[in-house]
Amino acid sequence: MVNLPPPAPACPDPAPPAPPGGETPSLLVQRNHARPITQALLSGNGRFMVTVGFDSTVRVWDTTTGLLVRRILLESLVNKIAISDAGNTLVYYAADATAGGGVIAIIDLATGAPPKAISQYGELAALPDGNTVAVGLTNLALYDAKTGAKTRELNIGLKPNHIVLSMAVDAAGRRIALGAAGEIIVVDVPAWKIASRFPLPASAGPIDYAIGLSFAGDRLISRSTTGIVHILNLPGGSPATRLPGTFSTHASAGSRLFTVDSATGNPAQWDVASGTRAPFAFADPRQVHKIGISSDASTVALVTADPRHGNFIVLQDLATTAHIRSFEGPPTEITALAVRPDGKQLTTGSVVNTLVRWNIESGDLEQTMPYNDPARVESISYDEDGAQVAWTANSYYVRVRNTTRGRIVRQWKPHGDQMVVFAQFLPQTSDLITVAVDGSVARWDLGGLVPPPPAKHPIRYDEVARPSGKPVGSFQRPARRAAVSPQGDLLAFDDVSGSLGVLDIASGAVRWTATAQTVSPYNDRWIAFSPDGSRLLLSAIDLLPNAQNRPTLTPTLRIYNARTGALLSTERPHTAGPMAGRGGSILLGGVRPVLLDASTFAVRTPVAVIDRMVSAAAAHPTRDLFFLGGDGGSTTLVAAGSGKASAIMVATASGDYMTSTPDGAFASSLDGARSIAWSFASPTEGFAFEQFSAQFNRPDLVRKRLAGEETPPLPPVLRPPRLEVAAPSLTSIAADRIALKATVSSTQRVDRVRVFVNGRPAVDKPVCAASASLSLDDVPLQAGRNRVAVVAYDAAGFASNPQKLDIVSTAPRARRPELWVISMGVSRYPRLEPEHQLEYADDDARSIAQTFAGQVGEGKPFAKLLPITLFDSEVTVDSVKEAVRILEKMSPDDLAVVFMAGHGVRRRDGKMVFLTSGADLTPEGVERHGVGWDVIQGHLGQAKGRVMVLLDACHSGHVSTDIIAPNEALAASLAAAR
Fold first, then answer.
1. Lowest-pLDDT range, 434-438, 621-625, 899-903, 949-953?
2. What is the pLDDT of residues 530-565, one digit of tens each?
3. In this structure, are 924 and 783 located in the same domain?
């Protein structure tokens, strides 16, 4: 919210058109791994981070932008991975690494060329320049990274039946260390011979192996199978320094060595020269289980995980110990979903018992409903009127929410102390069928008026409005899954021992059972009825002979006669997963989802989704449409006839959302556009959706696509400008100016390059060319710390990713910037009902004021603090206006932080207002005691310095969003008033 300097002269119109056949980007949901991370590596300068997880995905992250820029989906686990120091070559080893059968794949991150395959397997590494890949098994071989061809091979003289167990390359690419049973071998790469060979230090144990190796300057770090870490001097490996303790992992570069304690999960830093502990601060209380370091020793990555919050990656700057960036990964896998009978609402359930309610007509997220019991949602179902949605989540309880406000209206234990594995309303009724783990079945009447929610939000063990019910029957065996027939007369079950059966709901009698043993465990078996109810389908993994008559794990689909239990056929659809049927089509999920013909069960077409696998599926009640939930948390809408996706819906853990069409049209919350990015491959670089808003923020098109209407094609997504900045290799300068050099290019035309210093525009230079090298002289610096950001803009208005550098100017200045803090919070609203009161708004305002006060003083960024704090009754229309009006006195170098916490309301005219303490929810009360965002923005726009607005205009958990506007709508209104 600052005035830009006079703009540079405009480039002539029109801009040249983009050349045909440009690069097509990939759509990537910005998610962390759905399963624990097994490896984390950094490129040489820390720009790229590569992670591998138990979800069988390889993910490449750009640490400068925080974006996921490449995701490789596999079916098997990734055993080994490496990235070159140059960040241009990625290599990994997995059973299905390449389509052609090669177990090692080489990925060119610089050009986006197709992967190269190596048929050999073993330990691997990428040499620093990325041109060569090393693979070690019984010998050491080098491969050309561009072609995949073997260029050299060296006999390393291993004993019979011994293999290479670990490998490391030094920062210069001149030495390769190999760990084998009881020994370490160091190879001189230029001479292509063994430079030294020595036994593992005796203290590691007589049968110990070096399973982890890394270089640290002229020393080699070894970690054994028992967790013992030694610092070895080269060339001969002695003397060896043993670190005290045992360690689960380690990483080293330069003079730095990091370890993770096997027992506590605590990370530690060691001085390589002395073998003693060095200071290292890591505030996260969770255990670290993986660690990585860039070869220039500038950046360290620490990976933590827990079942509730998922994976969490922290990047730290080793020179300053500053936090660089975090990559959060809360579990988001969708495990169940259901569509309301009128087809206007969708509810999804996750692996941590969070329900998300979507408006299918607009693509808007209506409500996120977490529950304080992080269990896997097993089933979700709407009643016939769509007024109630029931769910069960691996517990003793069934819970029911109303579908208007998401409040819990019923909660009870239908089977006593037996876990509930299934709950579904019978078609066109309000009768709920429940199944317990012991195989008992009950029927519950949820008809009539929906009960009002209790005055106090129920805790997990409360019983609320228990309905009347009766037992139906029993499977007479432990049940794990169940399914209701389309006619509502049959209930199929799958038990934990591999038996399948059908129960008659009217009589409670078991019609038939059949032995249906498969290789896959019970939690990886899925059952469903065919759309006409005549067939019962079992999707699982079997051990069957392949074309060479070798037993192979094979996805199968068994088709049974639903009335008699006769096995009619066994199909091999190449995937196993949840199923949904509609008309003449069946959607089969899993890692290779497909559309099947409902009469022949033949595969019609594969179905493309953006997650690794389809983990839940449901059919639209009135349209030929499927909803597919993914293990990464996305929901894809797929046409039942063609198998083509029409829309993708993504919700974040913080309540933001985005709904997008495959060609890029989207509707989102204010921050939701950050949850998806376009990734370009040549070279690898990602761009958040938010900057494409001018062309692609099209809620109108999203609404039409969701309604099944055809829409005109959108223009292709063009790559924003590329920008490289050559900056002085310094962190401090005695001058108050700095000169930079930049290289820019674009598929159309680069119009200008701008330089920002501490967020304030400083330089605006025209380019008006498709590519150019230019000097950015005379960039002004403020006294003290400076964050300099350079951005290029093309003719279409798209921006490059900013190139940033931090510089401290020690030049004397007459004045240091001042910090203005306006912090206001309203928790108590005397004229509102108790349920509309807030708990922490005033406390948050106090915390914000205290936190920013710590940035003022000697040696701090700001010379003086000018605070204004307003709490509860102090927050009035006049006091708010006066507080923001004071900012007109700011100087250009000053920074103002404005924090507002309380209720926000949407008026009848659609305008947003912030409610002060005297407000009620009548139109008159809102008008008299509300401050419009246009008024606030008008005063902020008069400030000469930089203004940062922190908005927490939240609503309490049970307040209707028809009255209280969600935070993102308020923020959008404020931003739109600029």
1. 949-953
2. 999 999 999 999 988 887 788 888 999 999 999 999
3. no
Look at residue 347 and give its three-state secondary structure. Answer: strand
Alpha carbon distance 930, 881 (integer Å): 11
Domain boundary among 759, 776, 809: 809
State what percent of residues in the chain have pLDDT above 90.
67
C-alpha–C-alpha distance, residues 6 and 525, integer Å: 65
Residue type, 448: G
Is residue 730 one of the residues assigned to a domain? yes
Domain assignment present for 352 = no
Structure tokens that stand for 490 in this block: 């049959």
Q: How many CB atoms lie within 10 A of CB 284?
A: 12
Write down the pTM of the prediction: 0.84
Number of domains, the chain = 2
Q: Which residues of 566-578 are buried (b: 16+ CB within 10 A; e: fewer)?
A: eeeeebebebbbb
Give the helix/strand (H/E) hosting 99: none
Which structure tokens are listed for 196?
A: 């030294």
Q: What is the pLDDT of residue 956?
A: 36
Helices (H) and strands (E) in the chain, counts: 7, 74
Of 69-78, 89-98, 142-151, 948-957, the poorest mean pLDDT is in 948-957
827 and 960 belong to one structural domain = yes
> Is residue 926 located within the same domain as residue 895?
yes
Backbone angles phi, psi at 319, to 5 degrees: -75, -40
Strands 510-515 vs 526-529: parallel, antiparallel or unpaired: unpaired
Q: Which of 616, 614, 634, 617 is nearest to 625 (CA)?
A: 617
Q: Which amino acid is at 24?
A: T
Q: How far apart are CA 182 and CA 206, in angstroms?
A: 7
Q: How far apart are CA 55 and CA 78, in angstroms?
A: 9
b or e along 420-459 (b: 16 or more beta carbons within 10 Å of the residue's beta carbon)? bbbbbbbeeebbbbbbbbbbbbbbbebeeebbebeeeebe
Residues 845 and 955 in one domain: yes
**pLDDT tens digit sequence for 137-149:** 999 999 999 999 9
Burial degree of 237 (CB within 10 A; 0-12, 13-18, 19+): buried
Residues 634-673 have pLDDT tens digits of 999 999 999 999 999 999 877 889 999 988 899 998 778 8
Question: Do 838 and 945 belong together in one domain?
Answer: yes
| DSSP-assigned states of every residue in 493-521 | EEETTSEEEEEETTT--EEEEEE---SS-
3-state secondary structure of 257: strand
Residue in the structure block whose two tokens are 């960039």: 779
Helix (H, G, I), strand (E, B) or coil at 737: strand
